[in-house]
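# nightly structure sweep
# worker-07 picked up a monomer target from the shared queue
# config: single-sequence mode, recycle default, output format = structure tokens
# input follows
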Amino acid sequence: MDKVILIKYGELTTKKGNRNFFVSTLKKNIKNKLKNFDVEIINDLSRMYIYFKEKDLKKIINIIDHIFGIHMYHIATIADTNVDSIFEVCLNSLMDLSFKSFKVETKRSDKSFEFDSPTFSKMLGGHILKNIDGISVDVHQPDLLVYVEIRKGQSYLYFDTYHGLGGYPVGSQPRGLLMLSGGIDSPVSGYLALKRGIKVDAVYFEAIPHTSLDARNKVIELVRKLSKYTDSIHLHIVNFTPIQERIYQCCDSSYVITIMRRMMYRIMEKLCQKNQAFAIINGESIGQVASQTLTSMNVINEVTSMPVIRPVSCMDKLEIIELAKKIDTYETSILPYEDCCTVFVPKHPVINPNLDHAIKMESKFNYEEMIKEAVDSIYTLKIYEEDQEFSNLL
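# output follows
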């Protein structure tokens, strides 16, 4: 019996005039992810069909489970759109299943089919009862739901529903740059940004020798895990050491984090302009640390006109940790390698910084020249999910 993976779009169907764009973007993403398999992908505005080789099914499903834009999918068996074919295919499919009660649900998209949905559900249910002993119909809590979709040319039967990740297909929104620290929160923010269709690349601020190569490798591994949800991610590595040391020398200790974040945002804005990115994304959660109070965010944001997206801003830590575990970034994030945000953190960071005071301290050194040097010296890695070694330095 021939089978097909039947994909339903969910939120994409609300796009009306733009639906073609979202569906074609999803199809392109699926095609790219399945490029190593012998598949055929056909779509219309309400469904997508992936024809596959049976031996590849488990691997293909594992990939589909990590593609945004899929609301749900089914492993469907194909029948010709006539009563005899549907009856035969349904019985053959049920022979491998164990159940005591069932219910048939029919959706008739092909209005030229001779029976309406309720009538055909009763007909198919009667045929199943007649040919399989020891079972009964239960319309309220059946052991098995038999779904039938009657469409022109071919019809589809399936018994299970699998939920996809939802969201929008990656690439349906322009590029955004993720400030990836190596902690728990920023990878989760990257995942949530990808879910809304943003093509995410990452920026890592390192401060060697104050931070280690292990910390960098940790971030690379986090990017590799996030790339499972897209095709590839560019990681831009910024040498932040000179700027960070200068801040520590010139600024009040309580303002070190505030000034450091302002410098990072300045660099992020330049990187956005350089890489045609439309937003800065980070893992800030309101009130979690001193630099993430609303007052601090306001002072830090003052240096950039770029939109700053904070996907986890209204989530508590336990919610973020739960999602980090779900997307398999948590264990990597808690590896004990300090990033540049934690290695210089003062004992008593200011919670409600004053903008004028921050500007006054920044005037003590030529940060503009240092920022230019940092941007000019950035090097970039292009990281894929399947990479085990990261020798593809650009």
